[in-house]
Design goal:
It is built from six helices and ten strands, in the order βββαββαβαααβαβββ. It is α/β, with parallel strands linked by helices. Helix 3 packs across helix 4 and helix 5 runs parallel beside helix 6.
Length: about 240
């Protein structure tokens, strides 16, 4: 990746970001000239209907996909120009992912699922500490089948934060959960953001979740239609589901 020699700015700086998918003669503009900045340590919520571009943006800033056009800089480094090896190193060293479905290995305990990440990370937490941060110290030796959906999602969060990432990207982390369980998961994400300082972006369809964020980006038709600042953030337990 090409190093930007300017004074370091935001964690992410996205400019004119466009992503076009083509199937035969059909062209879909998933992103259409998106501009945004994410500051170090902030929690952002990306809100909007399905197909509005939220997941595409998250995949690009997470190094899972490449833009068709535009710039996406991580701490001044241009990700759009990175090769596969550089993107792999970027994901391994800097980014934690949490998805709607937990992707745990069923034959491993919660502790062992987290240890898979800590064993290959440069400066990890211990699995015990990561699981304690999400409130699962008493469940760490249980297998996924012995855990509820919310507990499995918290194991996934512990796994994502165990390598101490600078960035935590969450795609519909409460989408498969009921409201009470979803609040517990949001509390775990808020605690991880506060205690690790990871810049956190959460995709959701649930407008009530917006109140826990520092800033809310509303997506529509591949663009950011609005960016709102929450002058007062609420606790996840106060969210109207």
């Amino acid at each position: 990746m090409k190093q930007d020699t300017d004074t370091p700015g935001p964690m992410f700086e996205v400019s004119g970001l466009t992503k076009i998918y083509r199937t035969g003669e059909v062209e879909v503009r998933a992103l259409n000239g998106v501009d945004l900045k994410l500051e170090a340590g902030e929690m952002a919520v990306l809100l909007g209907p399905s197909g509005s571009g939220k997941s595409t943006l998250l995949n690009i800033i997470g190094g899972l996909d490449r833009p068709t056009a535009g710039s996406v800089k991580f701490r001044g480094q241009e990700l759009a120009d990175a090769n596969d090896r550089e993107l792999t190193a970027y994901r391994r060293n800097h980014v934690g992912f949490v998805f709607q479905f937990y992707n745990l290995i069923p034959s491993l305990t919660a502790w062992e699922n987290v240890a898979l990440i800590t064993e290959v990370s440069a400066n990890p937490m211990t699995p015990d500490d990561a699981l304690a941060l999400v409130g699962l110290e008493s469940r760490m030796h249980h297998f996924p089948a012995q855990l509820s959906g919310g507990e499995q999602q918290r194991v996934a969060i512990a796994r994502a934060i165990a390598k101490r990432p600078e960035v935590l990207l969450c795609d519909e982390p409460t989408g498969a959960l009921d409201s009470a369980t979803g609040i517990i998961v949001l509390e775990a994400l808020a605690r991880a953001n506060e205690e690790t300082g990871a810049t956190t972006a959460i995709i959701t369809h649930n407008a009530g979740i917006r109140k826990i964020a520092h800033r809310v980006f509303s997506f529509l038709d591949g663009r950011i239609a609005a960016c709102d600042i929450n002058p007062v953030r609420v606790k996840p337990s106060e969210v109207s589901w």
